[in-house]
């Protein structure tokens, strides 16, 4: 099959994307496909039009690749592509919108407030920080509405830290969330097709156990898959993750990040195009389900052609 | 933000639309193509078999002799036999660290220091202590305090790593008085000093200062040099000048690492330097970089926000700038990248997260119009962030005394 592999681009997650792309390319070649590797740039549409691939494998992370921009183009060009569709990508990429949808569907997600830069700059929104803190409590997490990785995330333990934390978050997007900090075990459920793969748990390394921001640091945690959970709890986590995946309209694959709090799982976010490097969570979960990297890549391709 | 995420972010700087003030690139666009062709022609006629072969681990004798000449231009006399050619200056740092450092050994260096040295020091598990600089370079009083504090614990540093001339990233130059004192301390305490001098010949104004090596005579000073900034970074040729016992270990280390530096590029560089044309070429580069430094400084005066500070380096490739302290250079970088400009955020030059509001700006590898545009965009982002911060902190609510995190109500 002729596969256009889309990678790189100019998102801040370009580096991870190039690594995902390289790993997937190897797998596609192993599987006997013809691969045309495209680094996102001004020649994208021309190259897709002249090469006429049977399918596009999207190994992009962050803005443009994960927010529906590229997916919309592929639909116009009538090229089937991997992963969630345009609308699902847009919903997942916008953490605020995603949380509203989850809440409307009755799915648990930590309480939050969203601030736009414009509201702060032009409408005096800073005067509401106290009320926001009163509602969602401290500590809280400030994060940009639309970044995938840990970029721009800061933990706030007192009101006075909000301006600095928001400057950071707003360096990555023009809207930011203040989200209630929920303590608990950190879990990720990758969904492939309609199936939840085994739950992965991120366990903060000992030296970082009490460092809030370590939770968001790559290498600040080790991963256990499948997570050591009682069966009923694992079922509940998977049920919530699948419900979140469906609520946001995902198809193909996605990764749902959750916190297992005392009163049950809470959804933090859904990543429309999770990392696809050897050590990323989706491939780890697939492996735990007995599917090697190549088989996972073929399955992702098959799902793209089904829809 | 974390370093791995940072590294990922810097991937974007390779995109053609990005004005990168982040690199340490020499301008290679003015190297005369006919000089390049002449060297290649000579190789074609006389040296094909030779340049395609392995060479001695220490480096070719021709290049070692030319290195002696280049160092003589800074009044530093060395014997060609004490020179080891390395694959770029970076390998020189790696080899000397590999040879001298065991896990836990102390390295003292400038604060901030060369961002590329930090991963090397860390990979050999050194305990890195950084000494603040002022406009005269490393504060020798603080250096002495640090050495004494270590002595009190029964420890002593394995070496002091410093870039005394047009420091990377600080842009400052160690004063003559401090040079003398540093060399004295090295002798008194029997501590090696690693003098990294990639930029000494790129002086825009003022009188050259003696190298630490020349002040010391090569007893306690190891000298690192490179052709990267005076000829080509692509040729990957640097060198080490060391006392004999260390040299033997370095040669063994280099043998293990890569057997020898490229024979082809050594041949090219050796003959180019032998022709003497390099002096003229370095003068040309210096003139280009001086203009670019001035362009960058005038752009900073025009576009950077009130409260930002920077120095005016008398040579080299870099300006170190510091924004008002409520701004973080990593935030600024994230936002600047969305406007296609990159620089190195300050914390990359420290082992302990200092330098939050500072940044390293390179002026050598970017043309004047791009320098101006790059600085304009960074300045605009900084002003917007400052304004937003002021808007947020000027409300009555944010002026209230701090509340304790245990009692959010």
C-alpha-based Rg of chain B, rounded: 23 Å
Order of helices and strands of chain A: EHEHEHHHEHHEEHEEEEEHEEHH
Structural class of chain A: alpha+beta
Could you tell me the mean pLDDT of chain A?
Answer: 91
Number of discrete helical segments of chain A: 11
Mean pLDDT of chain B: 93
- Following the backbone from N to C, one meets helices and strands of chain B in this order, namely HEHHHEHEHEEHEHEHEEHHHEEHEEEH
Classified in CATH, the superfamily of the largest domain in chain B is: Type I PLP-dependent aspartate aminotransferase-like (Major domain)
* The CATH class of the largest domain in chain B: Alpha Beta
Number of strands of chain B: 14
From the coordinates shown, what is the CATH architecture of the largest domain in chain B?
3-Layer(aba) Sandwich
Q: Please outline the major beta sheet of chain B.
A: 8 strands, mixed
Distance between the termini of chain A: 17 Å
Q: Kindly estimate the percentage of residues of chain B that lie in beta strands according to DSSP.
A: 5-15%
**Sheet/helix structural class of chain B:** alpha/beta
Written description of the protein model:
- The complex is a heterodimer of chains A (307) and B (409).
- Chain A contains eleven helices and 13 strands.
- Chain A is α+β, with helices and mostly antiparallel strands and 307 residues long.
- Chain A has three domains: 82 residues, Rossmann fold (3-Layer(aba) Sandwich), CATH 3.40.50; 141 residues, ATP-grasp fold, B domain (D-amino Acid Aminotransferase, Chain A, domain 1, 2-Layer Sandwich); 69 residues, 2-Layer Sandwich (Dna Ligase, domain 1).
- The mean pLDDT of chain A is 91.
- Chain B has 14 helices and 14 strands.
- Chain B folds into two domains: 135 residues, Aspartate Aminotransferase, domain 1 (Alpha-Beta Complex), CATH 3.90.1150; 223 residues, Type I PLP-dependent aspartate aminotransferase-like (Major domain) (Aspartate Aminotransferase, domain 2, 3-Layer(aba) Sandwich), CATH 3.40.640.
- The longest helix of chain B has 26 residues.
- By secondary structure, chain B is of the alpha/beta class.
- In chain B, helix 6 links the parallel strand 3 and strand 4.
- Chain B is 44% helix and 14% strand.
- Chain B has an eight-stranded mixed beta sheet, with helices on both faces. A four-stranded antiparallel beta sheet of chain B has the order 10-11-14-13.
- The interface between A and B is large, with 43 and 39 residues.
